[in-house]
Amino acid sequence: MTEIKELVKNQKMMYRAGKTMTYTYRIHQLQKLKEMINRYEPRIYESLNKDLNKSTYEVLATELGFLQQEVNHAIKYLKEWMQPKKVKTPTSHKGAKSFIYKQPYGVTLIIGPWNYPLHLAIAPLIGAIAAGNTAVIKPSELTPYTSELIEEMIQETFEEKYITVVQGDKDVSQELLEQPFDYIFFTGSVPVGKIVMEKASQQLIPVTLELGGKSPCIVDRDAKLEVAARRITWGKFVNAGQTCVAPDYVLVHEDVKQQFTEHLKREIEKMYTANPMESGDYSKIVNDNHFDRLTSYLDEGDIIYGGQTDRTNRLINPTIIEKVDWDSKIMQDEIFGPLLPILTFNQLEEVYDHVEHSRNPLALYYFSENEKNQEWITKNISFGGGCINDTMMHLGNNQLPFGGIGTSGIGQYHGKYSFETFTHEKSVLKQTTSFDLAFRYPNSKMGRNILKKLFK
């Protein structure tokens, strides 16, 4: 406890010294971060393979590639983002000029999850650095090899009083949440997110919560079924379904259900072979508890594809399940694994009722060629973000903010939005002293009449 207190105290001292305020300092740190990622690339592949059996393709596509794009984007636009913004001033404020200054929050805490342990620890850090903050990173204890590597990389690259890593279990997380941080960025489950928010509220610390939920994938009768099946297979089963924005379940129009499921089976075998568990590069479930939770769902509904498991290596083949409903255990919480329930609908309006069973999902995906229906889904259903005729690809565009709504999260990041998340917009009005307008003061005879006209 004393060590963590001292750590936060030292970071606060560094922040108050003003070192992180300059463009020169921030750009240099972002460049160091970029070099760090490139230098450790072989070790990154190795650690993620040890923790989650991730293939080199998955590491590049879902962890490294995103971080490289994100840090390059921040380096390119940092100077522009940092500039004070001049805004309009009303006539009632004659002689004044108005500005928005970009102020860092200060000392930040970043708590990362286990499913993308490198990506989701370092991506927020890019925003924290760009905005001029210091940072303490708490990586997941469930991915020990990657967490150890993150600590080694950060320790070698940055001063401890600027950026540091604290490892440990939930007791360490609790200690960290007792500290007077200026901002907390958490990625993880809804139950833990509630604890983070409760702890932060006791000190009125602002938070970003990147959570999850049951993200629906809707396949309408006019969808291009083969394309839909291919893109849903990729989005669902990458990282063995352990992705916060993976399609959690499919709602398919009952007229095309049979055709769609046949396409789905073929696409799974094209991407992962008939038995992915034997391929050697199919991601494993993170631990025994999660494995047991997922396999308990296999007793529900009818398995129409897959279902094979290997507890020794914590592997579960891509599995399609039908004949489940919202009372089934598999539909109560986010699945976070390679199990895909299939439900059906007749009328598009029914989709709204389905989603309301687990409202405000982090993502939603809709497959249809009908633009009117695409607009109806987009405007009438609440969700964090999503795609039309694709899955997960919205994450890869750093011009789009990423974040949830309601139970799927608070706040957003990626690209400029990461900078803005870790920045307080400070409003400043600069008033002239060359003259003073008498009507603003209570002793002005004409003040009330002039003010009424101005405000109208």
UniProtKB/TrEMBL annotation:
Keywords carried by this UniProt record: NAD, Oxidoreductase
InterPro entries documented for this protein: Ald_DH/histidinol_DH, Ald_DH_C, Ald_DH_CS_CYS, Ald_DH_CS_GLU, Ald_DH_N, Aldehyde_DH_dom, Aldehyde_DH_NAD(P)
Active site: residue positions: E210, C244
GO cellular component: cytoplasm
Any one GO biological process: aldehyde metabolic process
SUPFAM superfamilies: ALDH-like (SSF53720)
Gene Ontology MF terms: aldehyde dehydrogenase (NAD+) activity
Domain Aldehyde dehydrogenase: 3-428
The family this protein is said to belong to: Belongs to the aldehyde dehydrogenase family.
Annotated protein name in UniProt: Aldehyde dehydrogenase
Organism, as annotated: Filobacillus milosensis
